[in-house]
């Protein structure tokens, strides 16, 4: 609802201002939690807010970070997230809550979990949902206790007949897991419980992120009743020199099908995925491997790289991600937090910070060596005004405008056909870091095969644009495909972080089609290369290419011609809280 009464706005900002003072005086402890509607009713969509999104999840204002406890219950999707009800910077963290029937349109509810017990009085940090037998959801989450120790708590829905699960109750036994001298857990490195899974011995297992010195650890606990948890002697997994493991995720994937699996599924047709978010670098990585249930350890496949130079869900901005099993459609869905690339000062000025990526379905690639991700199919409901790009040749050195779509809010998919791969540049053996390679060979650096791709959020005359493009290299008998997202020209504002991102995409351009899909939404560009084999998300803040002044182009700055076909759709605005 858009309220435009300046008086009401003044009143609420005054009231919030006062609350901030009280808060500082009380050591960031947040009491007397106002309702969500009280907190957000002062919002009115200003014309002068070019960076707010049309279909990416965000609350009307303030700071958001990690996705928490996603689940489906009685046909309704629940999404919780780390939220600061008072400010556009991190702090006073509660679990905000929204629900949806389609993962696209969202209705806000009051905060679900907020400081109210000693075991979480200094903050309610990240956690996950587990669906207990009989379909009952419970949350395990990290609380910050009066000594600022990180402990694990349990909350459950007060009323299971409410499909919106609006009220959550904390059990008096909290915390269920806490650091101590005996268990040698570091009280400031013990957080973010995963969804629990049930072993064949009828015991529940959960992992919690931790570290010992610079060794990242997935601390394992077991329980018969979900209340009494016993720490296992060894972690489920650990890796040296990776630092603190935040938001671990551990789940099975099917070897033969794209269907998702319940988190407790084990068996011969199943591999496991292990993901962590590295506090040291603010990047994530995952490996694919085997869960040895007898030893209760996870073993990454041979050749796995245990650092953020290994496999990543997303090679741009994407952090603290979490999956859940959608039992209604048999798929596993990934949520991820997309931070800003603007300065804190700008975030405070605009009054908000942080987005969620469009939820992605994910599955194991046919090769068994990586995951594939694709935006949930429901997002296609927002498509309107599809513009077909008839098969045409994009000559070397040319730019072609895609007309007829709202370029600031669009879904574009283009396939590139290369008839002659002979002109591919030879890959230097030292070019092993795709991000570095993309920043050295940005969109304006001519090559043989490439750069070709899209110029998105581009101003007329190309003073501003974000380029998402491919380059193809020759490496002995094979070809290497590089996908880049180059933000260096994305905004005339010099203060933004404009890091160039890059990823190698495991496709063979000789035998497979080479496609690129980008979801463009005012200040975010999510790109999917190789039909979801490599994803790159960027945040950009154009000053000219905003709303109706944004344009979309296909380009080819290589010497060789490239055939293109595809389509672009305007996307309608979703109901985002
Ligand atoms: N964010 C939460 C922590 C988590 C971190 C606090 C990751 O639980 O480790 O807001 O972004």
From TrEMBL:
PANTHER family, sorted: BETA-FRUCTOFURANOSIDASE, INSOLUBLE ISOENZYME CWINV1-RELATED
Keyword Nucleotide-binding: no
Top-level taxonomy: Eukaryota, Viridiplantae, Streptophyta, Embryophyta, Tracheophyta
UniProt subcellular location: Vacuole
UniProt-listed GO biological process terms: carbohydrate metabolic process
Family (UniProt): Belongs to the glycosyl hydrolase 32 family.
This protein's name: Beta-fructofuranosidase, insoluble isoenzyme CWINV1-like isoform X1
GO molecular function term, any single one: beta-fructofuranosidase activity
Pfam families the UniProt entry points to: Glyco_hydro_32C, Glyco_hydro_32N
Annotated Gene Ontology cellular component terms: vacuole
Domain Glycosyl hydrolase family 32 N-terminal: 56-375
InterPro entries in the cross-refs: ConA-like_dom_sf (IPR013320), Fructan_Metab_Enzymes (IPR050551), Glyco_hydro_32 (IPR001362), Glyco_hydro_32_AS (IPR018053), Glyco_hydro_32_C (IPR013189), Glyco_hydro_32_N (IPR013148), Glyco_hydro_beta-prop_sf (IPR023296)
Glycosyl hydrolase family 32 C-terminal domain residues: 378-559
Organism name: Prunus avium
PROSITE patterns: GLYCOSYL_HYDROL_F32 (PS00609)
Top-rank taxon, per record: Eukaryota
